[in-house]
Amino acid sequence: MNVGVTGTNGKTSTSHFLASALGALARPVAALTTIGMFLDETRVEAPRSYAGMLDVLSRARAAGGRFAALEVTSEVLARGFAQAFPFRAAAFTNLTRDHFDAHGSAEHYFASKAQLFKTLPPGGVAVVNGADDVADLLREVTPAHARFLSYGVASRGEPQLPLTARGEVTSVDFGGTALNVGLAEDFGSGSITLRTRAIGEVFAENALCAWLTAVALGVPADSARDALAARAAPSGRFEVVATAPWVVVDYAHTPDALARTLATARRLSRGRVCVVFGAGGNRDRGKRPQLGAAAAVADRIVLTNDNPRSEDPRAIVDAIRSGLPATADVVIELDRAKAVELAVLGAAEDDLIVLAGKGHEQTQTAGGESRELSDQALGRAAHARR
């Protein structure tokens, strides 16, 4: 049974959490995500292609697996993937600005993601973030023969439709995130407490989405809860790589994701918050000033290279800088290793530094060439030089 997870942010985390929860019914579960392909928590080496995907799914089935959690991008959905490949369930995380270089407009971006829901079969399941602005539209395009469920966490805003599962975050600390979930009458009523080792309110949304989807597909509620509590966050998702000062690596590369990551950093830091980030070249240029505006809540901002690709790195940074207030404490250092070192060496022990934008990535692409580069390694190395 294939379950697709789509949305702007949180697809990878939701897919990994979902794979763990579905494992309560049958193992191994295939998880095919941005950071790699897995059978349960074991990485599988296979080409990142349609043939590679089918190979991993075949391995899972041969080993007794019944489920696959697939991160489904707007680009493949725009090319008709949902019509050609069978999904029994679809989960939606959120819709914020990204990939306008590929889609041209917000409308095309949304319409692409909606394909995952329009094609659900009789008896299929749709699980949608009911606090997202497009929740009502997704309900409209979901066929009447599919079961429609919704979830929401207060940090996203007011629900756009009645919620099947309503989450309230009760704690966020360096040990993880907890939330209390109230259930609608048609989903058994009552409440349940969910915990995840991932740090931040956005992961409360991801965990709730995964839990609701798994339970809708037959996983006992308590078993799904326990699986979520045991699973670590994927690489590069508010990943702590050093302490005193805290150094955190996060994949946040959209304005919404960066704002939420920095809100978590502010909540946890006992000192100042510093962020080191850039933006990808040859991609959605319009989001760059918005990234700057999102970063303005940090006490110190170090602008640097992300993956500039064939663009002028300075032009990318200047576009980000245009979204920041003139009073912001901004430093520009285009060499990412030097930028990380500058931020870490200049921090006090109670400060928190967020290395944003690259997350799990282990390379940097510039001028048509790719070289090894890991924010985790850069952060640890800089911290060791203090």
What's the topology here?
Elements: E1 2-6, H1 11-22, E2 30-33, E3 36-39, E4 42-44, H2 50-62, E5 68-71, H3 74-78, H4 81-84, E6 89-92, H5 100-103, H6 106-118, E7 125-129, H7 135-141, E8 147-153, E9 165-173, E10 176-183, E11 191-196, H8 201-216, H9 221-230, E12 239-242, E13 246-250, H10 255-268, E14 273-277, H11 287-295, E15 300-303, H12 313-321, E16 330-332, H13 336-345, E17 352-356, E18 363-366, E19 369-372, H14 375-384
Parallel strand pairs: 1-5, 1-6, 2-5, 6-7, 7-8, 8-9, 13-17, 14-15, 14-17, 15-16
Antiparallel strand pairs: 2-3, 3-4, 9-10, 10-11, 12-13, 18-19
Description:
The protein is an alpha/beta fold and 386 residues long. The protein folds into two domains: 229 residues, UDP-N-acetylmuramoyl-L-alanine:D-glutamate ligase (3-Layer(aba) Sandwich), CATH 3.40.1190.10; 146 residues, Protein-Tyrosine Phosphatase, Chain A, CATH 3.90.190. 35% of the residues lie in helices and 24% in strands. Strands 4-3-2-5-1-6-7-8-9-10-11 form an eleven-stranded mixed β-sheet, with helices on both faces. A six-stranded mixed β-sheet has the order 12-13-17-14-15-16, with helices on both faces. Strands 18-19 form a two-stranded antiparallel ribbon. A hairpin with a 2-residue loop joins strand 3 and strand 4. Helix 1 crosses helix 9, helix 8 runs antiparallel to helix 9 and helix 10 runs parallel beside helix 11. The longest helix has 16 residues. The mean pLDDT is 95.
